[in-house]
Amino acid sequence: MPAPVISRDEAVDRIIAVFRQYGYEGASLTRLSEATGLGRSSLYHHFPNGKVDMAQAALDSVRAWLATNVFPALSEDLPPEEKLRKFTDGLAHFYRNGERACLTDLFTMGEAGELFQEHFAKGVRALIKAIARVVQEAGFTPDDASTRAEDAVIAIQGALIVSRALGDQRPFQRVMRDMTAKLLAR
Amino acid sequence: MPAPVISRDEAVDRIIAVFRQYGYEGASLTRLSEATGLGRSSLYHHFPNGKVDMAQAALDSVRAWLATNVFPALSEDLPPEEKLRKFTDGLAHFYRNGERACLTDLFTMGEAGELFQEHFAKGVRALIKAIARVVQEAGFTPDDASTRAEDAVIAIQGALIVSRALGDQRPFQRVMRDMTAKLLAR
DNA sequence: GTCTATACGAAGATAGAC
DNA sequence: GTCTATCTTCGTATAGAC
Fold first, then answer.
1. How many Å lie between the alpha carbon of B160 and the closest alpha carbon of chain A?
2. CA of A8 to C1' of C18 (A)
3. Is the pLDDT of residue B121 over 60?
4. How does pLDDT run across A16-73, given as a tens digit for each residue?
5. Residues near A159 by Cβ (< 8 Å), separated by ≥ 6?
6. Which CATH number fits domain B70-186: 3.40.50.2300, 3.50.20.10, 1.10.357.10, 3.30.70.360?
7. What homologous superfamily does CATH list for B1-61?
């Protein structure tokens, strides 16, 4: 019974899960094949350049998901505090309360770093700017807002690592819970 | 001219550099062999279990270095602020101002995670406690001190990632510069 | 303690049948 | 669009000479 056993979107979701768990180099075609239920050749049919294309598809998918489900919160017509609250709630959901690793961490190391570092540099800069804009709306100077936003991104990334190392999601949850207040504290 | 072309300590230092750059799975024996100047068989002579032993030696070496050169600052007979300042200066040097990656990040992913995660859980807990003790000396409650210390470790890890993603060491440098003041802010 | 040689499986990748 | 088969390269690991 040939016919798409799985949709491309579903395949990409499972590919992302493998990258999250094993990193770029650790995500072997065998693991990707098992996770998707697709044979090696089927993977190459969908992703002609193999792992690089799968990683690119993973990045595109994650970016699109965030652009649809998380970032818009920062542009809604709401008070700064509520915008930030919706945003951090969205992020906490995205990272499954700290269970999931972030590709910004995984894909800026080793071989993947040479391929994707510039992608993530742009993404991180854009994220900091988007948060800073909201903080600025709340009455902080551009420089102060930018530093606070950078600290927020640092806290997200650091909390993911500390939670992973400890095997305990509470640090991540605490950071996300307190983030809005910290961004707006006088 | 057989004879140790390189000391074991020097070999371990170069092995650590490879792990830092490529992560655990990305650190192939070929790369480790090139970095140390030792043939594959020589590596197995020094590290009978191959990569696992090299990673263990890397961890032991890093732990010993920190225990000698960085952590003692937290136990010196100095005011809390000066202890923390010496400590953060030591860490900044250890991470080469943000240029170096942290093994806590790299070795808690993928296969390495299964091998070493518990090692890092212990290390992170011990580090948080050591920082918290000093913060407590400065007059904060145990709970408050512990949370502040956890935030400090989160900031270190996050700053390393953000600096790496941006290709810019300034976020890390800023975090280290401001860490003492943040830990002791009223 | 280092080297060359080699074994062996895993990884990435492709060809061609269905 | 998926499969089996195949290919090559790379990674890990060992044997044995020097």
1. 8
2. 22
3. yes
4. 999 999 999 999 999 999 999 999 999 999 999 999 999 999 999 999 999 999 999 9
5. A98, A171, A172, A174, A175, A176, B154, B158
6. 1.10.357.10
7. Homeodomain-like (1.10.10.60)
Write down the pTM of the prediction. 0.97
Q: Which of A70, A171, A59 is nearest to A115 (CA)?
A: A59
The architecture that CATH gives domain A70-184 is Orthogonal Bundle (1.10)
**What is the identity of the amino acid at B46?**
H
- Of B25, B104, B167, nearest to A117 by CB-CB distance is B167
pLDDT band at A4 (very low <50, low <70, confident <90, very high): low
A100–chain B Cβ distance below 8 A for any pair = no
% of chain B with per-residue pLDDT over 70:
98
Q: Which residues in chain A have their CB less than 8 angstroms from residue B123's CB?
A: 165
Q: Using the CA of B31, which nucleotide's C1' is the nearest one?
A: D11
- Distance (Å, whole) CA A44 – CA A32: 11
Question: What distance in Å separates the CA atoms of residue A107 and residue A27, rounded to the nearest whole number?
Answer: 12
- Block residue for tokens 């192939």: B28
pLDDT of amino acid A5: 76
Nearest CA in chain A to B111: A22
User: What is the nearest CA distance from B164 to chain A, expressed in angstroms?
Assistant: 7
